[in-house]
Amino acid sequence: MSKRKVLSSESDVKVIAKIMRAVLGPDLMKHIDEQGIQVEDIIRFMPVQKEIQASRESQGMSLKDAAARLKVRQYKLRDIESGLFSRIEPEILNVYCGLLGLGGFMESWCWDNRALADKIGIGRFAESHGNPPGVPASGQEKRGLSLVRSPDMIYQLKITLRNSRPPIWRRVLVPGKFSLFKLHQAIQAAMGWTDSHLHQFIIDNQRYSIPSPDDWEPVIDERRYFLNQIAPREKRRFIYEYDFGDDWEHLILVEKILVPDPKVKYPVCTAGKKACPPEDVGGVYGYADFLEALRDPDHEEHDSYLEWAGGEFDPDALDLDEINRELRRIR
After folding, report:
1. What pLDDT does residue 171 have?
2. Are residues 37 and 135 located together in one domain of the fold?
3. Using CA atoms, how far apart are residues 154 and 228, in angstroms rounded to an integer?
4. Is the pLDDT of residue 275 over 70?
């Protein structure tokens, strides 16, 4: 979350409003009043417009670039950054803040300025439903505020099998509204696993899976939490672990959070490298031994490994069409 101050105190607002009225003069103030705009509201919205502009510029993004990524008219974003909140479209403000990773900042602002947030049409973004365990609870987030992140946003994830050399990875686009259980299904399909073993997500030292009476320690029900909750911003990282015997750990990186393309059916895998290792091969190091034996016809385990693998195995094979057929089965 940004370290900028979300809002001056109300006494500061009143002082600044008094100065603004004196500077603007009676004629301009009359014009502002006729539009139903209060000077105090202009001042209260200033932190938002400044935070958005500063965040965009710090990311090296021009207003034109941002408008192109969001597929909106440039003037609609200019209205936001100019503080013309009377002309703001709530959904555009929402996705713009999502693009810039300002969910936490907007949570705080909406909570502290609820009346103005309701007037603009974004008050619903501050409604309380409780943060999931593991989501940082600092400042205003301790109050259980929902994240300013539209559930329709698309998450570009890079899934990398840890300690694989060379790296085995996939790039997938999934809806932010996916539960962690659906994300588990997407990871299985994208990587090429068969979902034959237990799994868990490790997020901020909290474990998410499907609870069972046989669990050695309690886990959080992954069906109740969603990607856009546990990863409200780009560059968020967490772990997906599969098969506690072979111990396949996957690093999940949120590379980008995007506006959905109406022409694309999600989830979808767009890129990747290397084949998925066979199930029960013995983890990363067992897989390395497996490949070494396959490469050497004179290796004592070459024939047995080849037979076990079904007669052939290409470690470089990757069929995106097949992966996406499996991803389309997720409902």
Report:
1. 98
2. yes
3. 9
4. yes
Q: Which range, 71-80, 119-128, 194-203, is most confident?
A: 194-203
Query: Same structural domain for residues 52 and 73?
Result: yes
C-beta separation of 126 from 110 below 8 A: yes
User: Is residue 106, in this structure, part of any structural domain at all?
Assistant: yes
User: Which pair of tokens denotes residue 303?
Assistant: 């024939």
pLDDT, averaged across the chain: 82
Q: Are 190 and 327 in contact (CB under 8 A)?
A: yes
Answer for the pair 266, 280: CB distance below 8 angstroms, yes or no.
no
* Long-range CB contacts for residues 50-55, cutoff 8 Å, separation at least 24: 50/4, 51/2, 51/4, 51/102, 51/105, 52/80, 52/81, 52/96, 52/97, 52/100, 52/102, 53/81, 54/4, 55/2, 55/100, 55/101, 55/102
What tokens does 276 get? 């998925």
Predicted pLDDT of residue 33: 64
| DSSP three-state, residue 246 | coil
Q: Tell me the two tokens of residue 233.
A: 């911003």
Task: Determine the structural domain holding residue 77 and report its residue range.
Answer: 10-143
Q: What is the CA radius of gyration of the chain?
A: 25
Q: What is the pLDDT of residue 32?
A: 58
Question: To the nearest whole percent, how much of the chain has pLDDT over 90?
Answer: 43
Q: Which two tokens stand for residue 95?
A: 């996705």
CA distances from 39 to 45, 95, 120 (A): 10, 26, 15
- Buried b or exposed e, range 16-50, using 16+ CB within 10 angstroms: bbeebeeeeeeeeeeebeeeeeebebbbbbebbbe
Q: Are 255 and 157 contacting, i.e. CB atoms less than 8 angstroms apart?
A: yes
CA distances (Å), 330 to each of 233, 246, 253, 266, in order? 24, 25, 21, 9
Average pLDDT of span 311-322:
94
- Tell me which residue has tokens 């309380």: 128
In terms of domains, do 190 and 69 share one?
no
7 vs 194, which has greater pLDDT?
194
Q: Is the pLDDT of residue 130 over 70?
A: no
C-alpha 327/C-alpha 184 separation (Å) is: 11
> pLDDT value at position 17?
64
